[in-house]
Structure to design on (335 residues):
């Protein structure tokens, strides 16, 4: 079920725009659908009143809590059951943040990510993406939403943008607190600035070498890092908030002196933050985590050279959360 299906159904039941507005707002804020002052002020048609319990049930069945795994580091993984029985995960993070999934599986196939190993199973609908936020709000307040769970949002662009528009309007979430996390995609760069709600962008860069990037992110669009940064910079200047570049630090792969110098050439003077994230080692994958000391030295060098760099600690790591290596640090993006 898409958000557009819900709206169409309401329309068929005789709902006016004000009824649609109040009903969706109630859903997004975990209130009974037919409650509130607006609803009393503009009494809905009888057919809509009669259908409300059924609509409420259908919306609830979009995501149901299957299990909850509380991590020691404040990340709480929610495994949610969708209406077709598939399981998807969201992660509750500190500072009223939530990380949501946008696809079941992922087609990008990043070599260092377990989600990528399974490939893409199916897209999540716009309503399923929003329903993850509604379910999390039934557990606690959510003010920041990071699209960094399972999946690549740019590969499910229209559904993700529909969800973002609703969350940034009736959902009451600040536009820069909606964070679209992507490997980068030309269509995405065209579409994001056109939306009524323009999210912040976190871009998974990982290396300055086009050849290495191709290896590490085999199914990502063929855009070299120079062009990626140009496109991102344009977006950052349009929306007025910086790009968060993500750099999963892999020992012996993207931690060389040459990479550091190329990062300076690429990002110095850009409206950006570089997040260095030491790799979270997984026994079944062959990548190694560099020492924290080395990561600190790199971050310090980059800051001295004028590239605003943060070394990110992990949240959600011990609950084996989400989009490979990145989700664990998603909350840091909404500081
Ligand atoms: S790291 Fe993210 S984009 Fe890459 S394969 Fe995993 S889920 Fe997909």
């Amino acid at each position: 079920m898409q958000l557009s299906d819900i709206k169409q159904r309401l329309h068929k039941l005789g709902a006016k725009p004000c009824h649609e507005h109040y009903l969706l707002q109630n859903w997004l804020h975990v209130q009974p659908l037919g409650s509130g002052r607006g609803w009393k002020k503009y009494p809905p048609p009888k057919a809509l009143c009669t259908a409300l319990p059924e609509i409420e049930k259908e919306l609830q069945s979009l995501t149901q809590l299957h299990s909850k795994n509380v991590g020691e580091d404040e990340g709480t993984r929610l495994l949610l059951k969708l209406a077709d029985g598939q399981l998807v995960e969201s992660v509750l993070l500190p500072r009223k943040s939530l990380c949501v999934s946008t696809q079941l599986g992922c087609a990008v196939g990043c070599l260092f990510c377990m989600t990528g190993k399974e490939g893409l199973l199916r897209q999540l609908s716009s309503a399923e993406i929003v329903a993850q936020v509604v379910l999390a709000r039934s557990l606690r307040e959510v003010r920041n939403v990071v699209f960094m769970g399972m999946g690549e949002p740019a590969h499910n662009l229209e559904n993700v943008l529909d969800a973002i528009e609703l969350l940034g309007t009736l959902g009451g979430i600040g536009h820069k607190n909606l964070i679209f996390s992507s490997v980068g995609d030309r269509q995405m760069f065209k579409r994001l600035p056109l939306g009524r709600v323009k999210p912040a962008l976190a871009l998974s860069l990982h290396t300055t070498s086009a050849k290495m990037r191709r290896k590490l992110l085999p199914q990502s669009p063929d855009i070299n890092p120079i062009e990626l940064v140009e496109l991102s910079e344009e977006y950052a200047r349009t929306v007025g908030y910086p790009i968060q570049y993500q750099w999963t630090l892999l020992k012996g792969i993207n931690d060389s002196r040459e990479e550091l110098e190329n990062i300076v050439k690429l990002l110095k003077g850009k409206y950006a933050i570089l997040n260095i994230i030491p790799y979270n080692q997984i026994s079944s994958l062959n990548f190694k985590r560099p020492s924290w000391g080395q990561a600190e030295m790199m971050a310090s060098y980059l800051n001295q050279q004028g590239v605003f760099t943060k070394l990110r600690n992990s949240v959600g790591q011990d609950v084996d959360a989400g989009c490979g290596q990145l989700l664990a640090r998603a909350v840091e993006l909404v500081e």
In short: Residues 11 and 20 are 8 Å apart (CA to CA). The domain at 63-334 is CATH 3.20.20.70 (TIM Barrel). The mean pLDDT is 91.
